[in-house]
Predict the structure.
Amino acid sequence: MGNEKVKILIADDHVLFRESIESFLSKKDNIIILGTASDGFDVIKKTEEFKPDLILMDIRMPALNGINATKIIKQKFPEINIIIISALKESEYIIESLKAGAKGYFLKDSGLDTLVPAIEKVMNNEYYLDEKLSQEIIKNIINNQ
Amino acid sequence: MFFNDKKNLFSISFNSKSKNTRTIFHLEKTNNEIIYDYIIYKDKYFIFAKSIYVVDSDGKIIKKISFPSKEYFYITCEGENGYHHIITEKFFYTLNLNNYDIKKEIPLPDDLKDVAGFITISRASSNTFWLSFTNKGLYQLKKDEKNNKYLLKKENINHLIDNCFINNIIIDNNKLWLAINKLGLWYYDPETKFATNVYLKEEENNSIFLNKSYILSSDKILYLGCKSGFFRIIPNKSINNKKSNLLFTNFSFSNEIIDYQKLLSLKEITLPDGVNSFSFQCSLLDYNNPPKNIYKCFLENYDTTWNLLGNKNSFFYSNLEDGKYILKVLAINANGVSSSDTLHLTITIPTPFYRSWLGILLYLIFIFIIVYLIFYQKQKSNEKKLKQLREYSKQFVELQEKERSRISRELHDGINQVLSYAKIKLNSLHERLEKSSIEELEKVEKLLDDTNTEIRRISHNLHPIILDDLGLQKALLNLIRTYKERYNIEIDFIYENLPSVLPKELQINIYRIIQEGLNNIIKHSKANKALIKLGKKEEKLSILIQDNGIGFNVLTNEHFGFGLKNIKERVNFFTGSIRIDSFPSKGTEIYIEIPLKEVENGK
C-alpha cells in the first residue's frame, strides 16, 4: 500500500452507517475520508470532484443503486477501486456487483474491524469477499451448473 | 170427434152427413192406446193409434196395420189420389188407403230422430210438405221427381223461429202462416225467405196455439184456435202486393261517407288501407207504413245466415279480415211484400301493409335488427364490465404489490439497517470487555443476527426487492435457486430474447406467476424436474412452466384451485392467454402468452 494514505469516499443513504464508518476509518492513520454521499448520483458527482482511490458503496440507495453507480464509475474511472458494503447476502447481488466492477463485497453486519483488512486487500489489487458469503457463492455455483 | 172414456176404451162418435145418424164405435182391442189422428176415406175410418185400424161404418175393424218399425208417436197428413202420409219420430211413410200398403219413404236425420215432443206436417202441393219438430224450426220435405225420393231440408228463417216448434203451418198459396207459441203468428215467404211477424194484440201474441186447430176459409179469413179461445185474422186485406224499390242511402267507413247519389250507381268499392269496418243504411221506398218495413242483410264470405235487422235500416260490420265480400240487403214492407230487388254491393278490404309480404319482411328485419342491437349492446356492456372488473382487479393487485414493496423496503432498508448498525456497535465493544462479558455479548449478537435473518425473510416474502435492484432475470434466478436449494428439485431456467427493460408491473406479475407455478409444482406435482422458460415470440412474451410430475385432470381437478386462479387472473391483467395441458402421470405444462405491445401502450 506504500506510504501514501488511501483516499476514501463513503456512499450510503443511511446516516448512521455513513457516520459510524466515517468515524471509525478516520481514526486510522493510513486512511483519509474525502467525503460521503447519500445516493447513487451523489456518489458519481463526488467521485468526479474528489477522485478517491476507493469507494465504499452501499447497494440500496435512492435514485440509482450502488451496482449501477459502480458500473458508471468504473467505465469513467477504471482505476478507482470499489468495495460494496451491504446487508444483502444473495449471491446474485454479489455476482452482479463483481460483474459491475466492484473489487470487494463487505457485509454490514460483520464487525468494522474486518473493514480495514478488506481495504488493504483491495488496494493490493486483490478481491475481497466476506467470509460468510463464500457459502452462498459455492451453493450458487453448484446449483447453476 | 174423439174422446177417451174412463174405462180406458176408445170411442169414436161420428156425425154422418149422408145418413145424418150418430155412430159410436167401441174399439175394445185398442185398450190404453192413444189415438193420434183419424180420417175418413170411402166410408172407411182410419184410426191412427199404436197401430192403424181400418173400421167400417158399422164400427167393425176390417184391418189392423202395424208399423214396420217400433214407433210411439206420429202425425198424419192427407196425400193425393188415395194416399195418406204419416210421419213418426223415425220415418216418413206413405199409406195407400186403397190397399193398406205402408211404405217407408225416408228415415229422419239423426238430429231429428227420437225428438221427444211434437211434429207438425202440412202439405203445400202434391209433393211438397212443410214440417216442424220440437225446437227445430221449419223443414221442407220435397219429393224429387227424378229419382222419386223425398228430401228433408231445414228452412232457415231467423234465429227466433229456427229454434221453435211451429204449432200450426197453414198453407196460403205459396206462402205460409206459422203459428208459434209465444212468438205469435208469422207470415213467411219461402221464395224470398222473408218472415214477418203479424202484429197481433198482445194477449194474442202470447197465446198457446192448439195443434191443427185452424181453418183458412175460402174467403181467406184465418181462424186460429188457442187456449184462450180463437181469433179471426183477415190477412190479405192489408197486404199490398206492389213491390217497391230498395236502395242504399248511406255507406260509411272510417271518416268517409258515400252519399246516396253516388251509391245509386256504385257496384263495387275498395276500402282504404287499414280500414276493416263499415256501416250502411238503406231504405225501402214503400210509404204505406214505413216504420213497419223490415230489413235483412247478408254479407257473403262472412255471415252464415241472414241478419234480421227488423225495423232498423242500418247495420255495421267491423274487424273484417282482408278479402272480397258481397253485401246483400233485402227489405219487406208492412204487408210482407219484398223489395223488387236484392241490393248488391261488392266490398273489398285490402290486405293491410303489415300483413303483406313486404310488410312481414320489413317487420322481420326490424325485429332482427332490434334483437341484434340488444345482443350487441349487451355483449358490449358485458365486455366493458369485464374490462372494468379486470382493471379494478389489476389496480387492486398493483396497489397491494406497491404496499408490500413499501413495507418490504421499510423492513429491509430501515429496521435491518438499524439492526446491522447495532451489531457493528456491539462488535466494537469486543475489545473493551472482559472475557466473561464477551460471551453475553456474543449471545446478543446472535440474537441480532437471527432477527436480521427473520426480517429479511419476511421482507423478501412481501416483495422481492432484488427485482427492483437487479431486474427480472436476476430475481427469477434467485427465486429458482431458492426453490432448488430448499426443495431439492432440478429446475432449468431459460431466459432469452426479452427486452432489457420491462414495465415494473409486468415484471412483478411475471415473478408472481412463476412463483405461483413453482409453488404448485412443489405442493402437488411430486416432480423432480421442472423447466421455466421465458422468451419472446412475435411481439409476445411467452412463459412456459413445465414439470414431470403426476399431473392432474384439467377438467375435474380443483387441486390447483387458488394458485392457478391467481395465475390466470394475472395473465388477464395484460390480456394474455393461458393454456394448461396436464394428464395424470404425464406432467403439467402451463403456457402463457402476453402481448408486449399492449403492455407498452398501456403504460
